[in-house]
């Protein structure tokens, strides 16, 4: 999955800004390391884009509607079968 590089840069920068003033000389290196760690960790996650999620949500809703219609049909057929048996 693709992650917005700007967002990762912002997070890495915020993390680097939390470094105590005495370690400011390491700030640039730490920011690069934070960026690499975040990029690596996020790329290992099994995530989908919002667009993919919305598509699957629509597919699920359609499948659920089809299932409900089939359940009603089966119930009607069962009622018909029972009423024929009673005759």
From TrEMBL:
Primary site of residence: cytoplasm
Stored Pfam families: BMFP
Coiled coil: 60-87
Domain of life, source organism: Bacteria
GO cellular component term, pick one: cytosol
Single GO biological process annotation from the record: ubiquinone biosynthetic process
Location of this chain's protein in the cell: Cytoplasm
Presence of the UniProt keyword Coiled coil in the record: yes
Pathway note: Cofactor biosynthesis; ubiquinone biosynthesis
Keywords: Coiled coil, Cytoplasm, Ubiquinone biosynthesis
Bilayer-crossing regions: none
Family: Belongs to the UbiK family.
Function: Required for efficient ubiquinone (coenzyme Q) biosynthesis. UbiK is probably an accessory factor of Ubi enzymes and facilitates ubiquinone biosynthesis by acting as an assembly factor, a targeting factor, or both.
Full protein name: Ubiquinone biosynthesis accessory factor UbiK
């Amino acid at each position: 999955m693709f992650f917005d590089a700007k967002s990762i840069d912002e997070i890495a920068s915020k993390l680097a800004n939390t470094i105590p003033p005495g370690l400011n000389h390491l700030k640039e290196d730490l920011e690069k390391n934070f960026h690499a760690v975040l990029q690596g960790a996020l790329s290992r996650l099994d995530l989908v884009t919002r667009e993919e999620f919305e598509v699957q949500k629509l597919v699920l809703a359609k499948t659920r509607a089809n299932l409900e219609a089939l359940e009603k049909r089966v119930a009607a057929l069962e009622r018909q079968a029972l009423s024929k048996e009673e005759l």
